[in-house]
Amino acid sequence: MRRHRPTTHALSAALLLALGIASGQATAASSDASVQLLPVEVTGASIIPRPVSVQPGNGRFMVDADTRVIAADGSAEVAAQFTQLLARTTPLQLQVSPAGTSKGAIQFRLNKNANTDAPEAYALRIDGNGVLVEAADTRGLFYGAMSLWQLLSATPSAQVTLPAMQVQDAPRFAWRGFMLDSARHFQNIDDIKLILDAMATHKLNTFHWHLTDDQGWRMEIKRYPKLTEVGACRAAAGEAGVGADGKPHLYCGYYTQEQIRDVVAYAAARHITVVPEVDVPGHAQAAVAAYPEHGVVDGPTLPSANWGVNPYLFNPRDETLQFLENILAEVLEMFPGQYIHIGGDEAVKYQWQASPQVQAYIRELGLKDEEALQSHMLKRLEKYLEDHGRKLIGWDEIIEGGLPPQATVMSWRGIQGGIEAATHGHDVVMAPGNTLYLDFLQTNLPDEPPGRPKFTSMQRVYAFDPVPSELTAEQRKHVIGVQANMWTEHTRSEEHLKHNLFPRLAALSEIAWTPLQNKSYDDFLARLPAQLQRYKALGIAYGQTALSVAMKRQDDRAGNKVTVELSNPLSYRDIRYTTDGSTPTAQSPAYPGALTLPVPTELKAQAFFNGKPLADKPSQWNFDAASLLSRTDKTLAQCPNGGRLLLRLIDDNPLEGPRENFDVTIFNPCWLWEDAQLQDIASIKVRAGRIPYNFGLLHEDEAKRSYRKPVARHGEFEVRAGCEGRVLASVPLPAQAGADGFIELEAPLRAGTEQISDLCMTFSGDTRPQMWVLNQVQLQPKK
Fold first, then answer.
1. Contact at 8 Å (CB) between 423 and 475?
2. At 589, is the secondary structure helix, strand, or coil?
């Protein structure tokens, strides 16, 4: 309930180097004389995404400070990009020459006569005489350079020996995309550029930039300045309170046209096309707040401070379509790419249905219904884009009511929308939410950051095939690519954003580039550790949870022991552990299977690959008497009747510093401790937080939101034997939480309670506008 502002932090030295802002400086490793960098010999081709073909050769080639880089036949730009990236991420400071003998050198060469129909194809040859990167097009040459950089950057050294090999490579899909939502939470330009750097090294070529939504309009439009003056500021989500001026705290931010052009140019230099999104006709609340005459309902509104689905729509009449075309005119000037994303998703038609003027307009146009009216709007915008040499792409809802004739469909509600579009001859980009939404957590571990706990594992991402088997050979040609999306409702920090993206972006790149028959998850796992070192070289703090060790436990209070099962979320098999407080090494005992440990025990575990730890720190657990009596919201189950939409929500305070987060099902908050051992237990103690309920729900979802009617004035914390069983414990709730946003309550356990029972824990009373969320529960023994 305190203020939060998006700020542009000073760049770390590593990030400055990664972005090329501090060109000419050496990396910390190369400039620190106390660091001894041993020669490195690369074994195999740990390239991600996996190439079409890698043929091993005979011999090897050593790259060191004396290795020349020759830029032949129009390849100077790529050669310069390669050496600059190498210098920023490794100790190798190589110089580019426009000519010279290729023997003993790295040579880049454009060969316009190369026999290929793929402009992004390349060939990479390494033998005892040197390295040759060759392609028919600058794009292919750039991707060949990225593959060579990967081979040289996995381990920092001033002397790297490469094995002989021949790589022939080309992408599977033309659209290899990543979407970033800058509307809900705003990212600074430097963070976006770092993401573009990472995309380039992964051979991803499309950056879909979500710039407008209910919660914010983030793009300067000079003809309509109120879009950013009004639409770029919302009440800070969940952070109540006012400033010294008596006004609500605001969360603001937008990109100037100059900044946008800078990002577009930065991306283009890395062969990435930026696709902007202007959402029509829904997700329009920020725009309507700025220019209410282009909305449907009378009266002013504000940009939304809620998540979920909001009802604000653009007016469908000609004057609003002209307003949107005027916006697009400036968008086309900033974004020269072929595609403009027009949204079309989640446009609930309540306002249109309730408006006599809109209903009369539907009849005037002779349209069937509101879906046809949306199609009417999008078809006009498509014609405008086509008249200006561009293409319309939209979310799969644009199918409803009739697709614009030449529209490309981005299928997010599964793959069925993509199948339908391809069947009717429309191009498709597959981006199913249940697989490729990166705001879904990447593991089910307690220390994942806020997001959607219906987690999307690396295995699930990697296994996805964008081309449905239902399509014919001709229809499959319309699947032009694949994209992962990062929605940011619950991602308010740079740290959490990078955690969500990396290393899953590596799996995305292999879906998008590698031929289906070449994909192998086990082989991917063998190449991933080298990729982690490249992330470090780029200054990317990738997520650690997937690399750590997961633990499942079964407590035995009577026997004063615990049985644990260990695993790695990515399926790395070499897990080492200790029980003496020491950090596991490759020589520590290998995990043999379920471990039964006495209480107390301090267990530490680490996953290894080729004798090296994967995570930066070991996972650890302290099993003592207190731990057998305690659970948190992350280690409790959700009640079967808890409804859908489990979320991991961040606290609304403090203003600065780390915040708690809570697992809660927002339709019916309820937590379940299965098979709780209640012998000698006198009471149940709970620590609970109170956070705003800031979710917009569809009308049909309102009926699914439920709660127990309160008995006490402010409700009660209630424990039942199973979710529909009798009440085992209950204690009244206070009117509000303490100064820190939390309360602690103790509910006596009623007589006659079974020694082992499922404990279903709820807070009675309406969840709006504030809801109680469980943080920790403890069983209190009898004294």
1. yes
2. coil
3-state secondary structure of 531: helix
d(CA 469, CA 518): 18
Residue 142 phi, psi (nearest 5): -60, -45
b or e along 414-429 (b: 16 or more beta carbons within 10 Å of the residue's beta carbon)?
A: ebebbbbbbeeebbbb
**Are 763 and 715 spatial neighbours (Cβ–Cβ below 8 Å)?**
yes
Catalytic residue numbers, as ranges:
213, 283, 346
Contact criterion met (CB below 8 Å) for 374 and 342: no
Distance between CA 439 and CA 537 in Å, rounded? 25
| Neighbouring C-beta atoms of residue 38, cutoff 10 Å | 8
**Sign of the CA dihedral 120, 433, 486, 50?**
negative
| Closest among 61, 47, 125, 133 to 96, alpha carbons compared | 133
- Fill in the amino acid letter for 639: C
- Which residues have a Cβ under 8 Å from the Cβ of 665 and sit 6 or more positions away? 638, 639, 642, 643, 644, 645, 646, 647
Residue pointed to by tokens 């060759």: 134
Mean pLDDT of 195-200: 98
Q: What is the 3-state secondary structure (H, E, C) of 236-302?
A: CCCCCCECCCCCECEEECCECHHHHHHHHHHHHHCCCEEEEECCCCCCCHHHHHHCHHHCCCCCCCC
Q: Write out pLDDT tens, residues 483-513.
A: 999 999 999 999 999 999 999 999 999 999 9
Tell me whether strands 619-623 and 160-169 are parallel, antiparallel or unpaired: unpaired
Handedness of CA 504, 488, 296, 325 (dihedral sign): negative
pLDDT tens readout for residues 241-268? 556 666 778 899 999 999 999 999 999 9
> Residue 599 corresponds to which amino acid?
V
Q: What is the DSSP letter of 446?
A: T
pLDDT tens string 619-659? 999 999 999 999 999 999 988 875 568 999 999 887 777 88
Over residues 391-424, the pLDDT tens digits come to 999 999 999 999 999 999 999 999 999 999 999 9
Q: Can you tell me the distance from the alpha carbon of 374 to that of 397, in angstroms, rounded to the nearest whole number? A: 10
What's the start-to-end Cα distance of the chain, in Å?
Answer: 39
The pair phi, psi for residue 460, each rounded to 5°, is -65, -45
Helices (H) and strands (E) in the chain, counts: 20, 40
Question: Is there a contact between 593 and 557 (Cβ–Cβ < 8 Å)?
Answer: no
Distances (CA, A) of 673 to 450, 612, 684, 778: 22, 37, 12, 11
Q: Is 477 left (phi over 0), alpha (psi -120 to 50) or beta?
A: alpha
CA neighbor of 399 nearest in space, from 385, 410, 383, 389: 410
The two structure tokens encoding residue 526: 């063998």
Instruction: Please list the helix, strand and coil fractions of the chain in percent, rounded to the nearest 5, in that order.
Output: 25, 30, 45
Q: Measuring CA to CA, which residue among 437, 469, 477 is closest to residue 453?
A: 437
Residue 608 near residue 573 (C-beta atoms within 8 A): no
Whether the bond between 503 and the residue before it is cis, its omega within 30 degrees of 0, is yes
Given this model, what pLDDT does residue 114 score?
74
The per-residue pLDDT for 86 is 97
Question: What string of DSSP letters covers 500-513?
Answer: HHTTHHHHHHHHHH
Distance CA(190)–CA(263), nearest Å, equals 9
